Amino acid sequence: MNWLLKQCRLISPDQEIENAAVLIENGVVRRIFAEGDALPSADRVTDVEGAMTVPGFIDVHCHGKSGFDFCDAAEEAMETIGKDKLKEGVTSFLPTTLTLPEELLARALQTAADYVKKDVKGVKVPGVHLEGPFINPKCLGAQNPDYVREPDIEMVRRLAAIFPVKKVSYAVEMPGGAEFAAELLSEGITPSCVHSAAKFEEFEAAHRHGLQNLTHFCNQMTPLHHRDIGLVGAGLACKDVFIEMICDKLHLCPDMIRLVFSLKDLEKIQLITDAMRAAGMPDGESSLGGLAVIVKDGAARLASNGALAGSTLQVCDALRNVYEITGLPLKELIKTTSWNQAQALGLKNLGKIAPGYAADIVILDDRFKVRSVLVDGELRYQA
Ligand code: FE
């Protein structure tokens, strides 16, 4: 079975081709045709009428959607999130945990394992992202203080035996935090720093042990200070460091988004949602990790202290925001929604539309609204 998408405005890293055609065979992109090339016959031909055709988004930081949180540790939660992420153009995501007891995290990871086994025709789940519990209790944000603990590789190994752990976000200044980066890497897990009060020097120690990622850059980390550049300074100064960014214009104001995009190598920026259960839902009462949350005008804040409690962002809107704010070419910006994530996590054959890559493709209209989504060459969502 092969499928030809024609009249595509193909946008992939370092590439924008008008009137392109994409030939998909057995779930994989076989060939790209430029305007004027003779097109082959195919079992199925779809004219996308000049719409933006981009690599499926990879959201490496997402707690929930549509009223559910991954840490509900319920089959219905995992399946609903897994299907509804398609609506924002996501074709792979890392369900992301919160600072919670190990026993509950284990149950959540089991729902991810079951989801993959069941093949529910949602988005791909190559692994999970553990955000916490190894964070600095002074930098909780919306994480629950009751379950904070020191870095513990044995705990990570126990969880990874249930379902692959791809990324662990923790505070490098916690006891053993620098060495923890190397321990995670030896397990094939990407270490990332956040919810941290680390001085630049403490970051550098973990960096020497291989840490090259910062989670939700600027949020819950040491700001740039002229006598200690902190973690924000680390993200800007260290060329090899990947940064996650929540570009909802709340977690990062437009001026900060513009500043970071002008200073940082675009190949190191990863747009994320950090979405919680209120994403895709109307304003009102919600919750995160057992803490009460109020959502107003799409901003989710803890009822107790007003701290931002994750976002209600969708990746297609994050891409539109950075496009409108930075004015950078889409063939550059498109690296930040999938390619960079695939590089940071070592995900093979994902992140661009090119021969040999998985046919994970999103068709977007001019306002970046998702029209249709293909996962492994199969139509899984149509607006
Ligand atoms: Fe966080």
Structural account:
- With 383 residues, the protein is α/β, with parallel strands linked by helices.
- It folds into 2 domains: 2-54 and 353-382, Urease, subunit C, domain 1; 57-345, Metal-dependent hydrolases (TIM Barrel, Alpha-Beta Barrel).
- The protein is built from 10 helices and 21 strands.
- The chain has helices at residues 75-84, 102-118, 153-160, 177-186, 200-208, 230-237, 254-263, 315-326, 330-333, 339-345; strands at residues 2-12, 15-25, 28-33, 44-47, 52-55, 57-62, 64-65, 68-69, 90-95, 128-131, 165-170, 190-193, 213-214, 242-246, 269-272, 284-288, 291-296, 299-302, 361-364, 370-375, 378-382.
- Strands 1, 2, 3, 4, 5, 19, 20 and 21 form an 8-stranded mixed beta sheet that branches.
- β20 and β21 (378-382) form a beta hairpin.
- α1 crosses α2.
- The longest helix has 17 residues, at 102-118.
- The radius of gyration is 20 Å and the shape is globular.
- The mean pLDDT is 97.
- The chain binds fe (iii) ion.
List keywords for this structure.
single chain, 383 residues, TIM Barrel, binds fe (iii) ion, Urease, subunit C, domain 1, alpha/beta, 2 domains, 3-stranded parallel beta sheet, 28% strand, 21 strands
Oligomerization: single chain
State the helicity in percent bands: 10-25%
- Mass-distribution shape: globular
Average of per-residue pLDDT values: 97
Number of helices: 10
Ligands and ions found: fe (iii) ion
Distance N to C terminus? 24 Å
Q: What's the number of domains?
A: 2
CATH superfamily (homologous) name of the largest domain? Metal-dependent hydrolases
Using only CA atoms, what is the Rg? 20 Å
Strand percentage lies at 25-35%
Please identify the structural class as seen in this structure: alpha/beta
Examine the secondary-structure arrangement and name the CATH architecture of the largest domain: Alpha-Beta Barrel
CATH C-level label of the largest domain = Alpha Beta
Low-confidence stretches: none
In CATH, the topology of the largest domain is named TIM Barrel
Largest beta-sheet details: 8 strands, mixed
Number of E-type strands? 21
